[in-house]
Amino acid sequence: MKQQLKALMAAATLMVPTAGAVSAMTDADVMSMGHSMLVGAIVNQLSSSGLDTSGVSKLTLNEAAQISLILRDGSESEVDKTRRIELILDRAAAR
Question: Which residues are the signal sequence here (predicted)?
Answer without folding.
Answer: 1-21
